[in-house]
Amino acid sequence: xxxxxxxxxxxxxxxxxxxxxxxxxxxxxxxxxxxxxxxxxxxxxxxxxxxxxxxxxxxxxxxxxxxxxxxxxxxxxxxxxxxxxxxxxxxxxxxxxxxxxxxxxxxxxxxxxxxxxxxxxxxxxxxxxxxxxxxxxxxxxxxxxxxxxxxxxxxxxxxxxxxxxxxxxxxxxxxxxxxxxxxxxxxxxxxxxxxxxxxxxxxxxxxxxxxxxxxxxxxxxxxxxxxxxxxxxxxxxxxxxxxxxxxxxxxxxxxxxxxxxxxxxxxxxxxxxxxxxxxxxxxxxxxxxxxxxxxx
Length: 296
What we know:
mainly alpha; Tetracycline Repressor, domain 2; 2 strands; 75% helix; globular
């Protein structure tokens, strides 16, 4: 059990599901547009995603050992000072097998679904894994690119879900709205990491611009979501999922931003991330069940 536990830690399921949410949304939209999707494509596609995520998450842990050693307490989904590469639980052979098998699973399963899905799902692995964490690029340790990597990766996740049914691109307004939404959601995690990233010598957006300045930048981003969200809601030709997500997500983001400001007690935001993650998990279940019913 102890050996399996470290792989579960590397999977980092709570964060994995936040990246999986766009794919679940894309799947629901694809099932609406094409109810004749072959049933086997759904578990294979989801499996390919989690292979991609396991690779990206493991690489992030592997590259973040110095920063995670400085971590004290649970300010996100887990206490990062107890991750397997910090505690020494991962040997060299195990590490290479974890990278090799997860990457092979991502590529193989993705290609089984066709080039369109493969482009987006492998792209997700490369952006969230290699570009974000690998020492050659390490975009998570640079200002602005740490946020842009997450926005891009989430976009690939959505497009991969859509490609399960061969669906076209989402409306441009929804992509803009989604980018703003992801940036607002990601900024608090960057802010909470500032003391540890700074101690490790990383130049993230939070370290570069200052925790408070970056946090309060959430306000104009959240306000910019209002006119874009209205455009999405009023677009009668857009899938109803896009319109409802924009209609519900915009006021929730503004309210959430106000709560974050209230709970900002430097150097940390005193908010249990489960308050956000568990409702999102319920939304994922609802989207998958809806898509499955449409296919049935």
